[in-house]
Write a structure and sequence with these properties.
heterodimer; A: about 120 residues; mainly beta; 7-stranded mixed β-sheet; B: about 110 residues; 6-stranded mixed β-sheet; 5-stranded antiparallel β-sheet; 11 strands; globular
Chain lengths: ~120, ~110
């Protein structure tokens, strides 16, 4: 069964460093998402991406964040200068359709620890 | 006020018990998702529904659009059902909105 994959599973970095989190969505999907979950808190939306551009972003997704689909298969989230509060689980998701009835499929997550 | 509220926050039960987890939401929605999150952190989609009821194995999900309420039921619960169950909604009444808005989750523990 097709699935969303994410790498790495765990990333440890120093504050101020850049990190790139990678996702490979399901191959025929067209809509891509990043969510994050700070330990002990609920999952929060970061950004959605369609047709090579951001379709929606939350207030969390500031200038330190960027997303890219560099090669038609990978979907990346970059954090330019990490802060302690960026420590969280980051989930990628994808869906094949827009609208009310599309189902989003989640990757296993990348646990980011900023020291 | 949170747009999506779940109850209870924590639930402990004995193996075999019938489990109900509730979700209430305050926005107009077009779809509601029930998700399962295991201790390792990964999220698995259980159901997506916009009306009525869906069943998959021992899991049943219902939604009442008028009352803005959904329930997830587990029959004959088993220790392997222990996980965090999350309700999430999509408000496509807002043009272009594809994001999911999540509840805080219900931590379910089933003891043998």
């Amino acid at each position: 069964e097709p699935e969303v994959t994410q790498t790495p599973s765990h990333q440890v970095t120093q504050m101020g460093q850049e990190v790139i989190l990678r996702c490979v969505p399901i191959s025929n999907h067209l809509y891509f998402y990043w969510y994050r979950q700070i330990l002990g808190q609920k999952v929060e939306f970061l950004v959605s991406f369609y047709n090579n551009e951001i379709s929606e972003k939350s207030e969390i997704f500031d200038d330190q964040f960027s997303v890219e689909r560099p090669d038609g298969s990978n979907f990346t989230l970059k954090i330019r200068s990490t802060k302690l509060e960026d420590s969280a689980m980051y989930f990628c998701a994808s869906s094949s359709l827009s609208g009310a009835f599309n189902e989003q499929f989640f990757g296993p997550g990348t646990r980011l620890t900023v020291l | 006020k949170n747009e999506v509220e779940q109850s209870p926050q924590n639930l402990t039960a004995q193996e075999g018990e019938f489990i109900t987890i509730n979700c209430s939401y305050s926005v107009g929605i077009s779809a509601l998702h029930w998700l399962q999150q295991h201790p390792g952190g990964g999220i698995v989609s259980l159901f997506m529904l916009s009306s009525g009821k869906k069943k998959h194995g021992r899991l049943i999900a219902t939604i009442n659009i008028q009352e803005k309420h959904s329930s997830l039921h587990i029959t004959a619960s088993h220790p392997r059902d222990s996980a965090v169950y999350i309700c999430a909604v999509r408000n496509t009444l807002i043009q272009g909105a594809q994001k999911l808005v999540f509840g805080q989750g219900t931590r379910l523990t089933i003891n043998p």
